[in-house]
């Protein structure tokens, strides 16, 4: 068996079998692995910060506790601040939906009459049905939430698993951060010395790509989400906070923020105010934000970054979510980073090969 693994063919088959087993295990045990994957992600992101705090003569355990506690406080404060505002906008929107539909009916009736062979009675009936459904929307939402809460509480095992996940994430993050350097050192020691330089260089490049993504593209998306959501909120756009947050995070993929942000914002703003001035304000907000992002935020944030292409991020997230669910979403970006570096190394090796350089 050992002789077989030493041969090139045996190494390749073993590596392929290990990859297949890993993918199968992630697919089968995704729900169980999810909190540990989140914990490892937090440890990976926070480890550089913990190392800097250690240099300030702070014990590693206290630095980890301080970092995790601060992150938890920021998360709670953000959710506590944003969630009530979004819920208030949802309640306001559900109250005004009948008015919006009535406005569309009044403005659209002349247009329907001008269209040859248009069934006006059918169009009006559809609008009235929509108005009735929208009028019952708050009750439906309340019933849905109540049903979901009751279902979760009645399923004791599921509820306990949910609590376990909430507890295990910070606990696992703490212990992973505490031994993060030891873990990486142990892994490095298990790599054959002859392959160690290549593996270290490969992992460093993957780490650089991930750092560029998290510190670059995600930071830009967060800044854009803040600008757009606050701007739409002050303009008075219904669901402005939610639309702004969605548009900002969609900014990872070029032009997707226009589809998911600008178009809904213009529609909701027009239904609310029915004038041109507010539409111009929304257009100026998105245009100004895009200009700020293109000329100031991105150059200062990314500089010489070689992060992931937006299309690669989108494809990785879709594939990961489709095959592995929430765990796939977590593993999508790191996997895409590793694939990018591997393809770059293969391309470099090909360009330097005798096959490519040969003139025969």
TrEMBL record:
Transmembrane as UniProt keyword: yes
Listed InterPro entries: AI-2E-like (IPR002549)
Protein keywords: Cell membrane, Membrane, Transmembrane, Transmembrane helix, Transport
Pfam family, one: AI-2E_transport
Main location: membrane
Keyword Acyltransferase: no
UniProt-listed GO biological process terms: transmembrane transport
PANTHER family (UniProt xref): PERMEASE PERM-RELATED, TRANSMEMBRANE PROTEIN
Protein name, as recorded: Permease often clustered with de novo purine synthesis
Native source organism of the sequence: hydrothermal vent metagenome
Higher taxonomy: unclassified sequences, metagenomes, ecological metagenomes
